Amino acid sequence: MTRKSRRLWLVVACMIGLGSAAALTLNAFSSNIVFFMAPSQVHSKPPPADRTIRLGGMVVAGSVRQEKVKDAPVAIFDVTDGQAAVTVRYEGILPDLFREGQSVVAVGTVNPDGTFRASEVLAKHDETYMPKEVAEELRRSGKWDPRFGKAPDAASWNTMTAADNAKKPATQTP
Amino acid sequence: MNPELGNFALALACCMAAGQAILPLIGASRRDARLMALAPALAVGQMIALITSFACLIHAAITNDFSVQNVAANSAVSKPLLYKITGVWGNHEGSVLLWAMILSMCGGAVALFGRNLPSALQARVIAVLGGVAAGFELFCLTTSNPFARVWPAPMDGQGMNPLLQDPGLAFHPPILYTGYVGFAVPFAFAIAALIEGRVDAAWGRWVRPWAVAAWCFLTCGIAMGSWWSYYVLGWGGYWFWDPVENASLIPWLTGTALVHSAIVVEKREALKIWTVLLAIGTFSFSLSGTFLVRSGILNSVHAFANDPARGVFILGLLALVIGGSLLLFAIRAPQLTAGGLFAPVSREGLLVLNNILLCSICAVVLTGTMYPPFMSLLFGKTISVGKPFFDATTIPLAIPLMVFMGFGPMMPWKRAQMWPVLRRLWWAACVTAVALVVATFQIREILPVLATATAVWVICSSAADIAERLRLFRQPLGQSWQRARSLPRAVFGAALAHAGVGIVVLGIAGMSQAAHRIVEVHVGQSEMLAGDSWTLTDVKPAEGPNYTALVATIEVRHNGRLITTLHPSKRTFASQHQTTTEVAIHTNLMADIYGVLGDKHGDDANPTYVLRLHYNPLAPWMWLGGLIMAFGGALSLSDRRVRVGAPRRAKTVDVVVVQ
């Protein structure tokens, strides 16, 4: 075994290792990436029924209700980004920090009837915390600019008018 | 007064660290013994100063000194004493100070236990540690000073996040940080070797114990963190592929590779450049992991406050440390001579394979962790990757790793024949085949079956390795015992650590068969799960020191026989308007019975309660296996080869001249 042939072996082994890692990664990326969507995006472009997405927005105040399906409790609530609302059905225990009027991210799939079946509901550790995606979506829809104070209560959003938004300084990105 | 003393001690430590970074380096290049002798003295001095500083912060927290901003923001009078102490490192400023203190302790350890090192090497290692420490102490002083005062001082503090009020916080962060920071020592050895332009077997022998020690702490820390999230967060899971968890897994993977490749340097003087690169890479991943995550760049539940000044400082410091060391590596690595030759089928060959597979897994985890933030940074797309991605990429790479793990310790160095190795492993292979068949009939899912079989293979082949070395059952037991006593402890340590991996994987495979149900029940109602009957017998309010709680009583029976009574609860912390869920777990080491109390529904006259019931087979094995791995590492550290017989450098080596 010479130095040269050893080096060849090493290079071949490294190529196989990293090559298979890259192949696995690309393969997994094509099927396992989870996109974030806001309720209005779900309405305009509903994803395929088998595709897992993250739905983010604010929980509409007064929309949370409970049902019981075969002994298992199902929580139902509406998530809005200020333009559209999606009804979420979640079979399980809502996280401790889940509140009406606060931000939430639900992971799951969209049913054919337009409701969302969540397999996981995330509300973050801190009550003043807002997931980045939700903050971004609120900003984009022109409902909130983080530089001008706290996020508005979700209950007020559907009643907000264009005039309310126009009063704010025009610093928001379209 | 006391916080000022702490602040002064911190500033003093920073100055000593700066001196420690510069003076010994000059001394080592000029061969000035007096300047080199400063290194251990300054390192110990810095350690004492930082311990003092940290003690001052703990004192301020215990005595409720709310004029200290950090205490006011994170503590409260009503908080129990244990959490006043542990709360010191449950926030950004305190954790950075803890980080710096552990780093200074590493410097102190090299000063105290590294007396058998050549003085120039020791001086350079301590100098590199001092340089890193100076950077972080400056960071602590300028952007996140834990001793900053507020005026007027509030009457009471804001209290700590209730989730962190758990005994686990007392141990998990310090141990994990010791693991992270511990890899600074191999890093410093690598930089010192690059400055000297010389890596040889003695270097490998010096650096390995430090890498193994850091690896033990990191393994322990990850296992405890996983256990903590299992019983605190109450989701019934143990690993969420959260960026913070990945940030600890990535240095663990490269650190594991480092621990193995350093063996090749020590025994065969091969893979030297690669080992140096691994040492640099592991510490770089530890650094960027802890700080990128905590600076809030990666969106994570573990991120503390988000402050742009801190982010810029940290990024600059990371760029300096990582970029500088890689630049030095690029300049000096070509001067390091290549080492001994070996055939592909040999102990070295399998260790190379181990390194390739570990680094491939590391690359995959790194991609999965960094891809989403980069996508949102560059293209404004919000995506996330979760468990399905990591399962699909890491498991196919981990399975061959485990298969080769069984062969590794049996292979002779340099050149090996497969046949004798296979002959010694025949019974392990038979047991694995039986496990494969049994698991196929029991589980009927491809990945858990493969995981079970490879785990059994790893455990059996580790046992076969020891049995072979002891000539067990081929000799009288007395002679085997004699052999066992003369066998180096490192051999037992390695076998234990490998078996620990197998036990962890068995636990993971068991958890993939976990069953759970979410039910809504009245008091007195029973539900069935995994052959057990769960009855909610009572729900009562209770008072804690700074919370009120609702405690449920659940009786679990198997065929009418009472197995256990669980008391899961829900706590409401008034000062933060926050509730936490306290899980109740009963374990018999073969399975966990895990109960969570959820919301109360209905009116007070006829309430129903949501319960989440889990049956988690083999769950405790994951953490037990992690501890066994760490214990194996510790056992090999206690080997007398490490303690006595200080390794000496060979006299006739070609020294690269350092200008």
TrEMBL record, chain A:
Organism from which the protein derives: Komagataeibacter xylinus (Gluconacetobacter xylinus)
PANTHER family in the cross-refs: CYTOCHROME C-TYPE BIOGENESIS PROTEIN CCME HOMOLOG, MITOCHONDRIAL
Family assignment from sequence similarity: Belongs to the CcmE/CycJ family.
Protein name per its UniProtKB record: Cytochrome c-type biogenesis protein CcmE
Signal peptide bounds: 1-23
Cellular localisation: Cell membrane; Membrane
Cytoplasmic topological domain: 1-7
Protein residues bound to heme: H125, Y129
Annotated Gene3D superfamilies: Nucleic acid-binding proteins (2.40.50.140)
Family matches, as Pfam families: CcmE
Biased composition (Basic and acidic residues): 140-150
InterPro entries for this protein: CcmE, CcmE-like_sf, NA-bd_OB-fold
From TrEMBL, chain B:
Pfam families (alphabetical): CcmF_C (PF16327), Cytochrom_C_asm (PF01578)
Any GO molecular function: heme transmembrane transporter activity
Chief location category: membrane
UniProt-annotated location(s): Cell inner membrane
Entry membrane topology: Multi-pass membrane protein
Keyword Amino-acid biosynthesis: no
Any one GO biological process: cytochrome complex assembly
GO cellular component terms attached to this protein's record: plasma membrane
Domain of life assignment: Bacteria
Coiled coil: none
The entry's keywords: Cell inner membrane, Cell membrane, Cytochrome c-type biogenesis, Membrane, Transmembrane, Transmembrane helix
Function: Required for the biogenesis of c-type cytochromes. Possible subunit of a heme lyase.
Family statement: Belongs to the CcmF/CycK/Ccl1/NrfE/CcsA family.
Name of this protein: C-type cytochrome biogenesis protein CcmF
Taxonomic path: Bacteria, Pseudomonadati, Pseudomonadota, Alphaproteobacteria, Acetobacterales
